[in-house]
Amino acid sequence: MAKKSKQAYKQAPWRRQIQSVGISLLPVIALVVVVSIYLIISAQSASAGLEIMDMHYEEEEILRIIANQRTELAWKTSYTEMVKRAEKNGFETAPSESVHFMAIPGYTGQSPVLLAPPPGSENTLGPIVNEYYQQSLWDWVYNTFLTSAQTSEAAQ
Amino acid sequence: MKKGTFSRLTLIGIVLTSSSTLIILQMLHIQNSTKHQELSQWADEEYSYAIENYTPERGNIYDRWGRLLAGNEDVYEAGVMLEYVTNPETIAQTMEGVNGLTYDQIYDVVKQKYDEENSIYAVITDFLPSGVIDVLSDVKQTYETENPYGKDKEKPSLRGLIWSSHLKRTYPENSLASNILGFYSFRDRREGLGYYGVEEYYNDLLAGNPMETFMPRNPYMLESLPEVPAGASLVLTIDREIQAMVEKKLDEAIKEDEAVSGTVIVLDPRNGEILAMATQPRINLNQYWKYEDEFKDRVPYNRAISETYEPGSVFKVLTMSAAYDAGVVDDETTFPDTGRYEEHGAVILNWDRKGHGEQTMQGCMQKSLNVCLAWVADKKLGEDKFYEYMQAFGIGRRTSVDLGGEETWPLSVPGDADWYPVQLLTNSFGQGVAVTPIQLATAISAVANDGKMMKPHVLKAIIQDGKQYNTTPQVLGVPIKAETARTVTAMLVKSLENESSLALVPGYSIAGKTGTAEIPVEGEYSIDLTNASFAGWGPADDPQFLVYVWLEKPKKSPWGSVVAAPLFSDIAKELVVYLDIPPEDAQQNLVAKEG
């Protein structure tokens, strides 16, 4: 069999050339594959980056809309508007003489306003970007295969 | 043949290898040349980032129950990209009348010549509401459909007209609490500042940190995205409903009593929280630029903190408190009132120019006898102790209330070039000494709060970075003992009841004192021109509010007991309802039921 191969190569030396070319092309192909993966990931990262930038601008717009809506609500519930509405609905200010006080068990009066949580209530925010999008190919291979292999070995 | 092929292949190989090597060498050369580094740096600077001026959203201002007093609304700036304008007439016609602009004004802007260096964009108008923009957008779309790209110059086109949104400071309550809030000069979008009141005092907090940021253009530089936090929001101690009620009552009183102006301060003596502070004039904060029309002739923006005046007999509360606290008088001390006190080369008379015979200290306060108080200050307290107490009450010093524009008038004391012994006599009943309403209200609040004088303030909480930080009340000083404060309070309750004062509030025990200070005109005091005032607090056994009323030059009557006391009563009657304070009998019933 080996003799036949040698014979074949002697009769057609271009096979040897093809073999050499093939061998020399292998690292090039490997490089191209790596570069392709890199380009794909880069493109995806760039796309995600652009999306984040868009969302950043969108966030600004949303914050502006929230501020606007909050103010609009304040206009609609302003003192003058509320008095107008109350009068339109037939309400009138009760004179102090006609106010009766009564004890309501458990009622401690109007609570102080709390528009945001107090400093003590710390909310620990988790990472915004999923860790899968932050790790390199090597990290992924290491975490997915090597670490899990080590874990299963330890379990056994 | 084989040799030739080999030679050609070798030649091609050599050529390609040499070219590649040269290219690589050139690449390395470029990479390492100084020119490359300069170019790279220039490209980084020019194209990696865009410089953006970012003004964070100005913080909101709320009343004590979270009702918005100052916020921000979305408005639009309209302008033209001069390069793309095809039909300036259409733009001028369409926008005519918007924000009061005329056709010619708009046309002059739009007709400007495009210049890549100096003239790319021109502003037509600003602060347009979204409704106007919606209409403009519809019209622009219609024209664009009929005349794509504005190619046909005979047909209308709004090409080149653009708009961009931004936030504008807005005050949904218009003029309500305008003297407290101050205003933000929002029409000046680059150099806008807070003026007066809360807007001035807390400008830095509200404004946040406007900054010039580098916005990355490179999508990989996610971590460089700037985070510019909004300005802090403020929760005030002001109660919108009480403020509105007080402003209404004050306006009515000024009109009815034909006063030049007036001021009312409502505060909680237990912690110094200002619940309401009303003065005249007030302005619609959404039109702050009309400020000069209202505040002519150096009229202060907020009289409650900026105008000093001689307070008159209300000041006697401090003199009597000092005398009791120093132990130089007590309930048994009597004074033979002849209606005249002559000392230090001056003659002091009572307000009615009469003598009232033997008087206890209670009688002196009830009848508001100048002669008696001058005697107490001169013969009992003495100048050193009197001024020591006045300084302890904060007279002559700013209260440090957290509002922009607080003023003070220095207190002349023995040893000063401008102090004369006669001033001890006149100061004892509130003449020859000048205070602001907030100074006097703060000083008297010590008597209402067991001798403890709390710092007056309007800030209840700050909301920053998503957290609410509540403020802690501060003690300014303890000028008198708790026992003295209770004694003087009881004395003033009895005084009001004995004289059936117009300040009384049915069902509640109220302590208070009227004041009528003559105003000097060309060096002479005149009884026709007075500052009429009243300081009162209640309920006397557990004071939850202190109301200070000052009417300036009332024509209906010059007396504080006639014009200021009823205004106090009117306000206090409603205040007890807003503050959920039951009348004494109801309180006893509630306690009995709970027991």
From TrEMBL, chain A:
It comes from the Bacteria. Keywords: Membrane, Transmembrane, Transmembrane helix. The chain crosses the membrane at residues 21-41. This is Cell division protein FtsL.
TrEMBL record, chain B:
Residues 262-572 form the Penicillin-binding protein transpeptidase domain. The keyword Cell division applies. InterPro entries: Beta-lactam/transpept, Beta-lactam/transpept-like, PBP_dimer, PBP_dimer_sf, PCN-bd_Tpept. It holds the Pfam family PBP_dimer. Keywords: Cell cycle, Cell division, Membrane. One of its GO terms (molecular function) is penicillin binding. One of its GO terms (cellular component) is plasma membrane. It comes from the Bacteria. Residues 55-209 form the Penicillin-binding protein dimerisation domain. The keyword Zinc does not apply. It is found in: Membrane. Its main location: membrane. GO terms for biological process: cell division; cell wall organization. Belongs to the transpeptidase family. This is Cell division protein FtsI (Penicillin-binding protein 3). It comes from Pelolinea submarina.
